[in-house]
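User: Predict the complex with magnesium ion.
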Amino acid sequence: MLDKLSSSLKDTLKKITRLVFIDERAINELVKELQRALLQADVNVQLVFNLTKKIKERALNEKPLKSITQREFIINIVYEELTNFLGKEKSEIIIERKKPFKIMMVGLYGSGKTTTIGKLSKYYSKRNYKVATLGLDVHRPAAPEQLEQLSEQVKVKCFTEKKEKNPLKVYKKFESEYKNYDILIIDTAGRDALSSDLVKEIELLNKEINPDEKILVISADIGQAAQAQAEQFHKSCNISSVIVTKMDGTAKAGGALSACAVTGAKIKFIGIGEKVDALETFNPPGFVSRLLGMGDIEALLEKAKEAISEEQAKDLGNKFLKGEFNLIDLYEQMEAMSKMGPISKVLEMVPGFSQIKLPKDALQVQEGKLKKWRFILDSLTKKELEDPELIDSSRIERIAKGAGVPTSEVRDLLKQYKQAKKLMKMMKGSPDKMMKKFKFPGMK
Ligand code: GDP
Ligand code: MG
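Assistant: Here is the predicted structure with magnesium ion placed in the model:
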C-alpha cells in the first residue's frame, strides 16, 4: 500500500538520521524531497506546499526538548504534520443500538460499493452485530446476484428483488423484516459521473430511508479528483463517512486520502484488496507511522546515535588531524554530503583551518561519482572499511563486481581516501606549507 510513497519518505528520513549537521540547507533538502514524494503520490500541489511550509517553519523555529535529539525532533515534526494532514485522529462509525442501524453506500460505478458491503458485513458480524444487506442497485445487470453471493460468503441475510426496477419499492417490500437486524447495509446504484439522475435517486432514497450513516465509497486510483467527488456527493446527500477503496492497487492514493480529509468527511475505512477481509479501519497516526516506517526509523535513530552526533563531528576533525580517518568516516561524510562537501565543513571546525581559503570545489565530489562510491562502500566488509589498506587487487575486483562498477571506480575511491588522509597528515605540520605541497583532488 503506497509502497512508493512510503519508501521515498523513508529514504528522506533516513538521510536526516545520517546527517552530521542539520542546518537550514538540510531542512530545505528534506522539504524538497518530501514535496517530491507527496506529489508523486498525487497529493494536491497546494496541500503539499502548505504542509511542507509548516514542517519547514517548525523545523527552523521550534527548539527540541532537552531529552530528544535534533534528528528525532525533525522526524517527529514530519510525523505530526503528516498525521494532521490526514485528519488527525481515528474516527469510527458509531453504531447505535436501534433495529436496524441503517448504512447507505453511495458512489460512482466501480468504486467498490458492493464489494465493501461484503467487507463491512463481515467486519460487523465478527463484532456480534446481526447484519443484513439490501440491494437497491436496480440498474446494473447482475448487481443483485453479486450482492447475494457476497452476503452468502460472509453469512449474512441479503434482501434483493431482481425484477423490480424502482429502488424505493424494493426497500418498501422488505420493510417489515429490517427490525430483526442490528445493521442494514444498503447498496445503491452508481453512474459514470455524478449525473442529475443519480443525484435525484440518492436524494429520494435519502429522504425515504433516512439512513443513520451515509458512506461515500471512493476509489483511490482517481487521485486528487476525489476531493471534487467527495464535495459533490456531500452536497447531494450529506455524506457522513468516506471509505477509500483500492488502496492496494495505486501509487496515487495520496490524492484521495488527503483530498477527502480536507472536505471534513472523515475516512473511516480503507479497502486494501478484493477479498472480504481486505478492509482496515483508517487511523491517521497509525497509518503515518507505517508509511514512515516508524519502527525502522527508531532503529535508524539508534544507529545514527551510535554513528555520529554533532559533537562527534568535532571528534572527526580530530581524527583527521591524527590521521586516523578511515573509510567509515569517509562513508559518513558522503552520506552527509549534499551539494557542498561536508569535509570542508568539518575542516571549518578544525582550529586554524577555517582561515585557509580552499579552492571552492576542492573537496567536492561530483554527484554521479558519489552514487557509485556509495555502492562501492556498501560492497565493502566492515574490516575493509576500517582498514582500507587491506584492499588489494583481488579484493578490488570482488568489490567492483558487488557494486556493479568498473574496477577503476574502486581505485578512484581509494585514491580519494588516500589523498584525504594525506591531507590530514600534512595538517599536523603548518597549514601554509601544506597548502603549497598538497594538490587537492580535482584541482588542476
Ligand atoms: P461498485 O460498482 O461500486 O459496486 O463496485 P464493485 O464493488 O463491484 O467493485 C468494482 C471492482 O473493484 C471489483 O472488481 C472489485 O473486486 C474491485 N475492488 C473493490 N474494492 C477493492 C479494493 O479495495 N482493492 C482492489 N484491488 N479491488 C477492489
Ligand atoms: Mg455495485
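Confidence is low (pLDDT under 50) at residues 337-342, 349-363, 430-444.
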